[in-house]
Write a structure and sequence with these properties.
Layout: H1 2-21, E1 33-34, H2 35-42, H3 46-58, E2 63-66, E3 69-71, H4 74-77, H5 88-94, H6 97-104, H7 106-112, H8 116-121, H9 125-131, H10 133-157, E4 165-167, H11 175-183, E5 188-190
Helix pairs in contact: 1-5, 5-10, 9-10, 10-11
Length: about 190
Amino acid sequence: YKLNDIYCGLWLALALSALVKKRVFDHVNEDPTPLNEIASRVNLHSRTLYRVLRAVAANGILKEVAQGVFVQNDVSRLLRTDHPYSWSAMSRMWGHPTALRSWEKYDDTLTDGMSGVSHAFGKPLYEHLNSDRDALETFSAAMVSNSAHPAKATARAIDFRGGKTVADLGGGVGTLLAAILKEHEQLHGTL
């Protein structure tokens, strides 16, 4: 059963990425939402959507409260785009062609130690991202969302009372720096 769970996890992850890409979780309410209403809102094939929603609900993501009627749960809420610690960007990244093609090359990585990205695209990750705008935007959004919660915790945990300026070196789009400056208004920041 363990191996079955592992290999079935792949289709579940890909199904979640597809549902997030179609913004399905944004259209399931806290109150019971009928399947036909969800399918209509996102313009998806109702029977196919029902099969995948039942599968993700069986895996603890969403809850089917009656036949064809779904509500959010703690896990599915994280896949909404409006959740403060949303995993939707991470889900889109893991389902993005860059990630998928790179993992397809993992057997080559095991052979020579080069990254799957290098094998799949002929260049290292950041060179690939700089040549593929969609991949860059997807990756960047995932990194921002992945750092939102720890950035807030870090900003609260470090005592900046004696400081005037904080610099975030290699800080991406400034998620950590923004959290620090919001928490410690006396500081000035440099990214």
